[in-house]
Amino acid sequence: METQKQLLVFILCSYLCFFPSGLIDIKTKRSLQVQYYLVTNPYLILVLFLMAENYGVEGPTHNERHKLYGFRPTKLFVFGDSYSDTGNVRKAIANSWKVPYGITFPGKPAGRFSDGRVFTDYLARYLGLKSPTPYRWRRYAGKRLRYGMNFAYGGTGVFDTTAPEPNMTTQIDFFQQLIHDKVYTQEDLASSIALVTLAGNDYGAFKARNGSAGLINFIPLVVNQLVVDLKRIRGVGLKKIAVTALQPLGCLPQSTYMTSFQRCNGTENMLVGYHNLLLQNAVAKLNTEAKDTSFVILDLYDSFLSVLNDKGKILGSAKFENPLKPCCLGMSSDYRCGSIEENGSKKYTVCDDPGSAFFWDMVHPTQEGWRAVYIALQSTLEHLY
Ligand SMILES: *[C@@H]1O[C@H](CO)[C@@H](O)[C@H](O)[C@H]1NC(C)=O
Ligand SMILES: *[C@@H]1O[C@H](CO)[C@@H](O)[C@H](O)[C@H]1NC(C)=O
Ligand SMILES: *[C@@H]1O[C@H](CO)[C@@H](O)[C@H](O)[C@H]1NC(C)=O
Ligand SMILES: *[C@@H]1O[C@H](CO)[C@@H](O)[C@H](O)[C@H]1NC(C)=O
């Protein structure tokens, strides 16, 4: 019922707020600022009004903050996909293990879907921890186990996707098994933080199987399953859980190559807006119900857009001159970043300076891109303490 009401209101708003602008031109002043458009639109006020009772996601109240005083996370547990994977996906099936992935850090391919560090690495650094060991390499982790563990697998979602890797349910099963095996104690968990990323592979899989029609009805199913997973993670005993809002899928190079990387696909971003609205509401509800736990949304939608709009200027320099264009690109639509012929000849190009590109490949930011997003998220990250 609740979801249906929201859907109705959202669709009403979508038509009125988004469709006049259609494709959003990155070069115009209006550019990517869908938010600005929304804020100035009376229908959004209506939406917010109707949902006011559910709102209040802004982080801990004074009371909660007081209770959390002195909370210093000692471990990070990570669930999700390629936006947080640091080496779980098998070498045989992922480009992340091929040259030129990893050229900036650690200098060779190491299972990260980027030229270097990914969001997990920046969050770990923020918490004063080493990046947690990938689950697949846990037997070789040694002392590194004390920083937590990364269960994220590139290409996965809350449901099964086209990637033959563990979905989020299974990732949480792995985590529970380790607790059962006493690798981590309840005490450990009480001083731990979880990061949960969901970058849209469920939607990619849906499109591959069913096409775009009916996608909007699939969105509540994805969010509901994500909420089930979030509750499970909380149930295991984690006190702080950071979950990412979906990034603007319509701005990923896989969508913008149709316009030579000039314009975001407004239709896709609108669907992302709906996903994020449902997530926002569900998380607000969880926070209200919970007495000693706080879910924090890391808004990749806003942070990606603010970096893409400003081209990184907020960071002190205009670095990302052509922010929608990826650094590493297949030579034709048959090839991807990292593709080689049987005789070894390269079928991709890499830009001179990955540090000047926001996107690395068709889906993933560069290390410099992630750094910019991380900086844009600073004020939210403060809610993790
Ligand atoms: C996740 O994967 C497991 C194992 O393949 C499967 O049994 C389960 O149904 C999947 N969960 C979801 C929510 O798709
Ligand atoms: C696709 O369509 C089939 C049949 O209409 C349906 O059973 C399935 O749930 C849909 N979604 C996905 C993700 O395949
Ligand atoms: C935008 O995305 C929608 C949904 O994926 C697709 O049908 C449409 O063709 C795209 N538009 C452009 C101009 O790429
Ligand atoms: C590799 O093979 C392709 C065709 O498959 C050919 O065009 C290319 O010249 C070959 N390169 C080398 C270095 O032999």
Automatic annotation (TrEMBL):
Any transmembrane segments, and where? 6-24
Signal peptide location = none
Q: Which UniProt keywords apply?
A: Hydrolase, Lipid degradation, Lipid metabolism, Membrane, Transmembrane, Transmembrane helix
Q: Could you provide one GO biological process annotation from this protein's UniProt record?
A: lipid catabolic process
Q: Which InterPro entries match?
A: GDSL (IPR001087), SGNH_hydro_sf (IPR036514), SGNH_plant_lipase-like (IPR035669)
Q: Name one GO molecular function term.
A: hydrolase activity, acting on ester bonds
The cross-references to Pfam families, in alphabetical order and at most eight, read: Lipase_GDSL
Q: Which family does it belong to?
A: Belongs to the 'GDSL' lipolytic enzyme family.
Output this protein's name: GDSL lipase/esterase
Q: What is the scientific name of the source organism? A: Dillenia turbinata
